[in-house]
Write a structure and sequence with these properties.
The chain is an alpha/beta fold. Helix 14 runs antiparallel to helix 15.
Length: 452
């Protein structure tokens, strides 16, 4: 695979802005661009990491396209490892279109999605875990997600994978030496069971971080549920810090769920205000309740509200909480609401809250954060994966090592054990990109945005 022809693409969002960045890269890109730059000699002679001010000219019409700066990066000291120029132009859509149109006429090809990062990978500037971290950093929804993506970009996942690979290479070498020189065998080969088990544990721990990475990537669905008039919409508005949901003392006001994305202590959450749960013959309200139950079934957590100022009998409360716990696969957090209107103490296990004044809200946020992200998001700086591809390959490596372990324990022929070891190494090599096909690379980088 060779990618070295000159390409260009907008690297900032298309739209009205003060500035826009158009990235050009590839063999001969400086030579192609120079005739259209008002200072061609300066551009061709510029050292790496130099900023030049000038004008972009359309020689065919003798017009100025824009006044801009050209930031020069010489190979290999560039993002792609190739000669690269970033044109920082004015950010009006018409200017951006004019600049890109001129570059196409000069001989630049429009870059494919992720092609700049693909070239960086092919040039050895990044491995595949770091390349994926680039896209994850762009898509980060919270500060915690951003920090973890930067951690992966620095090579934290690759370090964990390479450490396991190094141990497996040592095991494989010992096995293959015995297979190649059986006549020098002085006895039975000591089975490296402990080393294989340690490698499996390391990989399983890394795979287990996917749940955290997925929550930080996609957000945790959280439903606010309870009887009608328990204060669900008030809590929804309180968490959003805006009057999004209608609040009324009329039972059954909320007929359908309302969804809004928020962030709580660094965790992205899709918050749902659901219809009040009660028995009703009214057709539209019944449909709203059915939809609410469907939301609860897919929730990572449910905030279940009880009206503390007008509490229901304890046995009814227990039955309804039991029903919600049956529906919800995640945590159910009982809340004793409207403490500003009653002197009744919250039952044990309930969070005391006033959705009107906000009293108890910080405790609720802390409990909710722990419920949807129980490991704290790996605050200790450990590597966290969020890539489906990486998780699948780690699981494949673990399965192969399981076969190795079984083979060693059962004293199977070492040539069979060696096949499973190679399968594990191959899976780990695919994670970092040491083993990669054109189809895998195309599938992965096609999900990137154009210009990155």
């Amino acid at each position: 695979m060779t990618y070295d022809d000159p390409i260009a693409a907008l690297a900032t969002p298309f739209g009205r802005s003060a500035l826009a960045v158009v990235r050009c890269s590839g063999e001969g890109c400086l030579r192609l661009l120079a005739p259209a730059f008002s200072r061609p000699a300066a551009l061709l002679e510029a050292e790496s990491h130099t900023v030049l001010y000038g004008r972009l000219l359309d020689r065919t019409t003798a017009t100025v396209v824009d006044e801009l700066t050209a930031v020069v990066f010489r190979e290999p000291r560039s993002y792609t490892g190739e000669d690269t120029v970033e044109l920082v132009c004015h950010g009006s859509p018409v200017t951006i279109e004019a600049v890109l149109s001129l570059l196409r006429r000069l001989g630049f090809r429009a870059a494919e999605p992720g092609e700049f990062t693909l070239r960086a990978f092919l040039a050895g500037k990044l491995d595949l875990t770091q390349a994926e971290a680039v896209a994850e950093l762009i898509d980060a929804r919270t500060q915690r997600g951003r920090a973890l993506a930067l951690h992966r970009l620095s090579g934290s996942v690759a370090e964990r994978i390479n450490a396991v690979k190094a141990r497996l290479v040592d095991i494989t070498a010992a096995v293959e030496i015995h297979l190649d020189y059986p006549e020098e065998d002085s006895g039975e080969v000591e089975a490296p069971i402990d080393a294989v088990e340690a490698a499996m544990v390391d990989l399983q721990r890394l795979a287990a971080t996917y749940a955290t990475g997925r929550q930080l990537r996609d957000g945790a669905p959280v439903a606010i549920a309870g009887r009608t008039n328990a204060g669900k919409s008030s809590l929804f508005n309180l968490l959003l810090r805006e009057d999004r949901s209608i609040v009324s003392e009329v039972h059954g006001t909320t007929r359908d769920y309302i969804e809004q994305g928020i962030e709580i202590h660094g965790v992205p959450i899709s918050l749902y205000d659901t219809a009040g749960l009660r028995d009703t013959e009214e057709q539209i309200e019944s449909e709203g309740i059915r939809r609410s139950e469907a939301i609860i079934e897919g929730a990572a957590a449910v905030l279940y509200l009880i009206d503390g100022a007008d509490p229901q009998p304890e046995d009814e409360r227990g039955r309804e909480l039991g029903r919600v716990r049956e529906l919800c696969p995640g945590a159910v957090i009982p809340i004793w609401n409207k403490i500003d209107l009653t002197q009744r103490e919250a039952p044990r296990g309930f969070i005391a809250l006033s959705s009107a004044t906000g009293e108890g809200l910080q405790e609720l946020k802390a409990v909710l954060r722990e419920a949807v992200l129980p490991d704290g998001g790996s605050e200790d700086g450990a590597a966290v994966i969020e890539s489906d591809r990486q998780r699948a390959l780690i699981e494949r490596a673990v399965a192969a090592l399981g076969a190795v372990l079984e083979g060693l324990q059962q004293a199977m022929p070492l040539d069979l054990v060696a096949v499973d070891l190679q399968d594990a190494l191959s899976a780990l090599g695919e994670i970092t990109g040491e083993v990669a096909s054109a189809e895998i690379l195309d599938a992965m980088f096609s999900k990137f945005c154009v210009g990155k």
